Amino acid sequence: MKVLRHLFLFISFFACCAAFCNSDSKNIEVKLKNDLLCHYDVEDRPRQLDLSVELNYGVRGFTYEESTSRISVEARILHRWDDLRLRWEENDYAGIKMFHISSDSIWIPRLFINNSFHHYGLGDCHPTECLVKSSGQIGCWIPCTQELDCIADYEKWPFDKHVCRASFKTFYLYENVTFDSNEIGGQVVMNTNNEWKLTSMTGLIDTKNKYAVHFFITIERYTGMIYKHVIIPIYCLIAFTLAILWIKPESFWRLILCGFNIYLHFSLMDRVWWQFPSNGASKSVPKILKSMTFMLILSTIILIESIIVKAVSIRCSVPPLWTQKIVNITDSNSIVKYVILSPTDLRENAKSDENLATEEASKKRDVMKSFNRIIDRILFLLLCIIYMFYKIV
Q1: pTM of the full predicted structure?
Q2: How many other C-beta atoms lie within 10 A of the C-beta of residue 150?
Q3: Nearby residues of 51 by Cβ (< 8 Å), 6 or more positions away
């Protein structure tokens, strides 16, 4: 009796399946789907031996985390392939050329993304509608949220670019699925990130095998806010450093300003330093930090020069003979005099020249003061040349 009951259920099940497959629906599209999917197995790959997949990777939005050098991508994965089981003659079904169907109802290539975050699968993906054409070609846009690894490079910060990679693979050994090298591409569907912009996106098939494809996403930082908070203050510090050299070296205010200048350099370097992650993502030191270190060294040289000049001016009541020779050479050359000396120094020298009637008046000329001015102007010209040809970033 029990055997008869199981036999009855088995016959009833196949009778229902036969009734479903042979149902004569008035809706032509429903009838077409019934005819194609009646004996269709979603676990069985298409009949052709070599199955080539066209893959297109689209980015709709992304967020980049600098502390982990990882990008979160809202991707749209479009892949096309041919399934001979889903072909039909358009004339037999009122000229229907295509129809939509859920991705869960048909066989789709098993792709997985290969990186340190996703060990299997494509990430957080959702079922979607696929387009089936009469030729048997199937195309599916699969929305996914993925975490990708990036190669961080802060050497040219704040004009830094980072390259992120999305590597897709297929189960070649089990399904014999490869990628079509002529139909691999990437595109930016939408960019809603206000801090980073996506500059380029390319796709390449692995040269060793055709069951792996790599997409390279290049992002670049927007530098508007950084210009206001970092770049402009750097050029202000350069102008401040050059202005210090126009203050009299024997003045006590010059030493105060030199110390304050060094403090500003340290403060700005500390602000820039905290912009970089401490995870060792970038192997090279950012060029802007090297430039600021060089600027700090120049500011320290100016402070040391000011201290030495002030100490020599206090202790040396009689200027050395070689300083007198240098000052005389400067006074004898009018071009050098007008380039090196300031208008105030020129007026002082002219006033002294008018009082050279006696030998005693000529000795009152301040040789050390003129010599100090010459050193400052030479340093000023050297710094101008250095800052003109030295690239900060």
Answers
A1: 0.69
A2: 20
A3: 45, 81, 82, 109, 175, 176, 177, 178
